Amino acid sequence: MATGHSVRYPAADLSRYAAQLFAAAGCDGDKPNTIAAALVEADLLGHTTHGLQLAPTYLGELESGGMTPHGEPDVVADRGAAVTWDGRRLPGVWLTARAVDLAVDRAATYGVVTVVIRQSHHIGCLAAFLQRATDRGLMITIASSDPAVASVAPFGGRKAVFTPNPFAVGIPTDGDPILIDISASITTNGMAGRLRREGKRFPGPWALDATGQPTDDPTELFADPPGTLLPTGGADHGHKGYGLALMVEALTQGLTGFGRAEAPRRWGASVFVQVIDPAVFGGADAFRRETGWLAATCRATPPVPGVDAVRLPGERGLANKRRALAVGVDLYPGILEALAPFAKKYGVQELAPQSEG
Amino acid sequence: MATGHSVRYPAADLSRYAAQLFAAAGCDGDKPNTIAAALVEADLLGHTTHGLQLAPTYLGELESGGMTPHGEPDVVADRGAAVTWDGRRLPGVWLTARAVDLAVDRAATYGVVTVVIRQSHHIGCLAAFLQRATDRGLMITIASSDPAVASVAPFGGRKAVFTPNPFAVGIPTDGDPILIDISASITTNGMAGRLRREGKRFPGPWALDATGQPTDDPTELFADPPGTLLPTGGADHGHKGYGLALMVEALTQGLTGFGRAEAPRRWGASVFVQVIDPAVFGGADAFRRETGWLAATCRATPPVPGVDAVRLPGERGLANKRRALAVGVDLYPGILEALAPFAKKYGVQELAPQSEG
């Protein structure tokens, strides 16, 4: 009998279980299935801090009224290629999937379609949405920020102004897509919290304490006064991450017109989605030729000492996904335990593990 | 009498002088004035490696036939909001200014306008184009890569695949715009060359030698076999810069359909320009409210020890520009000396310095 880390679950079972929980929590229409599938997709890709680990928190938000369970976003503006929604604090994972699908549907008509969402709830793992576009030969960018939260300081400062401001880019090639998922800070709030709980340190001086001194101690983020996450580039060249942070703030909070200036207090997100159809520019075949050449060349690059091979962003995640779809998802410990109280309360049957094949 | 670094030149005189040289070298129409103004704009902003220092090289390219002096780009595709040009190796500085102006003109109609250019010549300083959009309340992104050159390795590799792949973002606010000008590598080819000529080192381990060991020695880039520039994030978290490099390659070479797969040998650029009108999304006033709040908050952030004040990207450049417009441009040494042979050859009167006021 399998125990601990060797307990695996079929992805379809995880999706069904999570969908049942979100439906029982009041989510209408296709929201339960869409949310569940996107969270499991994050686990499949190995983004374990942004997969089903978020489900208990989302369910808690649905219970407290922090997340709106039903209905549609309000359309603030729709100019065909430029769309603005008010998300009404609907589940951000569902809103983002809808925004991507809308942009994908319109991409062939306009070439570039941009959808921005204000007052979305948390959108989860950005990388989990990329293949909705790349599977159709489209390039996609997703960016997100939370105007109610701050953990990253402007470069040269020691008080937080930004969230890590993730952005993800999906690039189709002649083979697997390139799936980039980065952020304007070296690490994330989720990772800082996890390392703190586990009594671990950052691998480098990825944060500042409240006095502005670099530190590898994640507990500094939770001190009073709190430290800050360093922007990408760190103390050495953090002006780069600072620039990225400002770019994402403008794309998300600026374009939606809802951000820190409103001083929101509730956990949420402002979101930017842009889908580009290469066929409308230099041509779909030419695009794949360039990106395919690039992917092959990167993989063939001789590695530095200590690295076995150069990989593309997303390569490890896609390999993880194929393996997990074949042998089951190796969930990060504690997740099903956190979901169990909701299952009991809602009368949903708990999930039985599948032992390793 | 002023000497050395205290020799200053009125910006208008520098522009006029450079425009005369480009006209004498065969550039037609508005090209001489546009190229000269954009190069001087880079010097005004303090981007001294990408200002008039490039003029002698551009003039040399015009003489050798590497840069096309006259005519228009070929329109490969024009879908209103999505435009693709073949630049026919015309001056990239002029092509980019034209692309920005076209996107600015159409932004109110489409919300987002994207222009990509293949077979452009070198486009100079990306930041020099941003205010063409931000002065009208528009957000702008410019990205560029040179498919004929490689100096940056994929993260984990030790052979160059990318150029530094700069991208710049202009964000209007309720005051000065935010002018972001960053790249996918920690430093640039231009800076490596300058430090090498001056016998200096990088401030940190910003490069790898050919065996893959981090180094601060810019001469490693010019060794045989050559070292590589590290992506943004360095040896610590260079996967971020690697992601940015791939994103810029896809936006520039992928969308234009002209890139490394064609193995071009001549110095040039593939270019991406995108202009966004906030008025078509959540509203121009709302955008300025958010970005204005952000700018004020960043400036008011308490600084880390050793930093006098937190600045916004572009703040120092705009201050430099105001000062230089008032008292003259303090040209980096050697530039006028490099232009003198062209002036003699073309019968253009050389520029007399203005002593400091």
Automatic annotation (TrEMBL), chains A, B:
<keyword id="KW-0560">Oxidoreductase</keyword>
<dbReference type="InterPro" id="IPR043143">
    <property type="entry name" value="Mal/L-sulf/L-lact_DH-like_NADP"/>
</dbReference>
<protein>
    <submittedName>
        <fullName>Malate dehydrogenase</fullName>
        <ecNumber>1.1.1.37</ecNumber>
    </submittedName>
</protein>
<dbReference type="GO" id="GO:0030060">
    <property type="term" value="F:L-malate dehydrogenase (NAD+) activity"/>
</dbReference>
<dbReference type="InterPro" id="IPR003767">
    <property type="entry name" value="Malate/L-lactate_DH-like"/>
</dbReference>
<comment type="similarity">
    <text>Belongs to the LDH2/MDH2 oxidoreductase family.</text>
</comment>
<dbReference type="Pfam" id="PF02615">
    <property type="entry name" value="Ldh_2"/>
</dbReference>
<dbReference type="InterPro" id="IPR036111">
    <property type="entry name" value="Mal/L-sulfo/L-lacto_DH-like_sf"/>
</dbReference>
<dbReference type="InterPro" id="IPR043144">
    <property type="entry name" value="Mal/L-sulf/L-lact_DH-like_ah"/>
</dbReference>
